[in-house]
Design brief:
alpha/beta, Rossmann fold, 2 domains, four-stranded antiparallel β-sheet, 7 helices, binds adenosine-5'-diphosphate, binds magnesium ion
């Protein structure tokens, strides 16, 4: 996957907003690449472009070697902060949804979705409706819906952003396990240093708007990672100082 010299300006009633300016990044197959940066630096815009929902003004985006021209649900699935479940569908039916759009037969849909419930930690919750599920469970259903269609690429825009700290940590552990088993390419947006360091093969720090890549951190430690190792503590301090600098800039410019 490649982002090549991409720029995006939004035109709003209060004037133009340069969301992204000349941003480039390439992500290899099977990577877990995290984007981290101050609010408004264009992370969601970038993910939207990779998903084919937002078009760049300049530059180009390649997914599996081909330019992105629009949404391609066979190749890319996206998970957002808000689970966005259908309230009138059970957990199982929500997981099945993407397969329905793909025209998969009812029997195969049911089988694929049912098999996912175990790894999702939702066995026994198949027939529950979203209102009967906790925040973490709802988010796992949303991730299940993305996993069911089995794309090579998974885009995750602050998927755990609405969860409490403890649930987030557990969800991170859970996601790590899923990713290591499926070996999908993940692009993950978060504000959490913990998540970035615990999960990623690479962390790209973005600048305050207009967003560019400020630095890229390669993380080669084995999984599961100890967050207390001296190496990790040092990386955390380094990452924090870079993010802090950009967050201060973002605060001063608004
Ligand atoms: N559809 C839109 N129309 C106008 N401005 C937008 C739109 N989407 C995002 N923006 C602006 O572009 C900038 C980047 O937004 P976004 O990509 O959501 O950043 P992030 O996800 O990093 O917080 C922000 O200033 C935001 O207000
Ligand atoms: Mg965002």
């Amino acid at each position: 996957m490649a982002i090549e010299s991409v720029a995006k300006r939004y035109v709003t009633s209060s004037g133009p907003v340069d969301a992204l300016d000349d941003i480039s990044l390439s992500v290899a197959e099977g990577e877990f690449c995290t984007l981290i940066g101050p609010s408004g630096c264009g992370k969601s815009t970038l993910l939207g472009m990779l998903g084919g929902l937002v078009m760049p003004d300049r530059g180009r985006l390649l997914v599996a070697g081909a330019p992105v021209t629009g949404p391609d649900p066979r190749r890319v699935a996206t998970v957002f902060q808000d689970a966005g479940l259908f309230p009138w569908r059970t957990a199982l039916e929500n997981v099945e949804f993407g397969l329905e759009l793909q025209g998969v037969s009812a029997e195969r849909r049911r089988r694929t979705a049912s098999e996912l419930l175990g790894p999702l930690g939702l066995r026994g919750f198949a027939e529950r409706y979203p209102r009967e599920l906790s925040g973490g469970m709802k988010q796992r259903v949303a991730i299940g819906r993305a996993l069911a269609i089995d794309t090579k690429i998974l885009l995750m825009d602050e998927p755990f952003g609405a969860l409490d700290e403890q649930t987030r940590v557990l969800m991170g552990e859970w996601l790590l396990d899923i990713w290591r088993r499926t070996r999908k390419t993940v692009i993950f947006v978060t504000h959490s240093l913990h998540e970035a360091l615990f999960l990623s093969t690479r962390v790209a720090v973005m600048t305050a708007r207009p967003g560019r890549i400020k630095s890229v951190l390669e993380l080669t430690m084995e999984y599961p990672r100890s967050m207390e190792s001296p190496e990790m503590v040092a990386l955390r301090a380094k990452l924090w100082s870079e993010i802090r600098e950009e967050s201060l800039r973002a605060m001063q410019s608004t």
